[in-house]
Amino acid sequence: MTNAIPPLATTGSARGPAHDIDIRLSDEGTEPECDRFVLSSPSGTFFHLSGWRSIVRGILGQRSFCFIARRENRVTGVFPISLVRNKLFGDCLVSLPLAVYGGVCADDEDSYFGLLTAGSKLARDLNVQYLEMRNRAEFLPSSFPGRDLYVTFTQDLSAGADKLLQGLPRDTRYMVRKSLKAGLEWTEDLSLQEFYEIYARSVHRLGTPVFPRNLFAQLRTEFPNHCRIFGVRKGKTAIAGVLCLYFNDQVLPYYGGSLAEYAKDAPNNFMYWNLMAQSCREGFRVFDFGRSKRGTGSFQFKSAWSMEVTPLPYRYELVRAREVPHMSPVDRKFQAPVSLWKKLPFACTKVLGPRLIRWIPSI
Question: What is the mean pLDDT of residues 219-223?
Fold first, then answer.
C-alpha cells in the first residue's frame, strides 16, 4: 500500500549500525512476500498477515502502514501499524487493532530495532498520543514502558485428547463430562446469522459494544482456508458458537459466546473441549486460548483448564501522552459506561455497537 508519508530508508537502528538493513513502507504487491516471511518467522502471528490490515481498513476504516525490513533484497522483518483517530482520547497508532498480538515481527536484532525506530519516527511525525505495540513476546528487551494487564493461555495438544482430558483439573473435568451428558451437539453447520446473534448477546452481557456482522463475513472471505465457525446445538437451537483462526500448527478460538439461559448445560465447556479434541485429531499442536485481562471472568474460566499462562509484554512509545494509556473496560473510569451499556435493550446495542466500536482505541 502506498502512503502519503515518504518511504523511510535507514542504515542505522536504535541499537547501532544496521549492517545494510533497508527499511521502507510497503508498496502494493509486496503482500505475498511479506506473508511468506510471517508464516516462516518464529515471531510471526496470524495478525501480522497482510489480510488482517485489509480487515482493519474495511471494518474500521483506519489508515494502515506496514514497514518492511530487507537485507540483500530479502524480507527480514515487518511492522504493521494502524492509525486510530479519536476526538475524545486523541489519535494513536496501534499494532494492531482488532488483534491480541502485533508489534514487530523480525528474526534478527538489526531488523527488529530498525523497525522500532521507523515506527517511533512515524508516531512523532504524525504527532499522535502514543504508539501501542501488542507484542506476543519481546524479541529483545527494550526501554518502552508497558502495563501488566493481559496474559495469554496456550495448551500443547501433542499428548492427544484422552491424556488432555485426564490432565484437566477435577472441577473442569467434571464440567466437561456434565456437558457431554446434557444432550448437546457439536456442529460445523452454524450459520453466520446464528453465530452473530449468540456473540452479540454474549458481549452485551459483558457491557461491550458489538462488532458489525460484516467483520465475521469479511474474515471468512479474506481467510477462506484459515477461518471456521463451530457451534453447539440443543435440539434445533444454536446455544453457543466460536469463530476460529488457524495459523501454521495453531488453532485460535478468537470470537465466541453462548446463551446465558443454557448455562446449566455448560455449553462453553462442551464447546471448547470438543474444539480441543477435534484439533488433536486434525493434527494441530497448539491451542491458543487467547488474551484475557487479569481479574476478569474470562481469566478465571481459562485458568481452570491448567494451560500455560504467559504475560503479554505490550509496550508503548509515548509521544504526546505523559503516561501509559488506561483504556481497558476493567478500569474504574469505564465502569459507569459498561453498566449503562448492559442496561440498554439488546436490539439497540446491535445498532449502536458497530457505530461506536471503531472509536475505541483499545479494541
Answer: 97
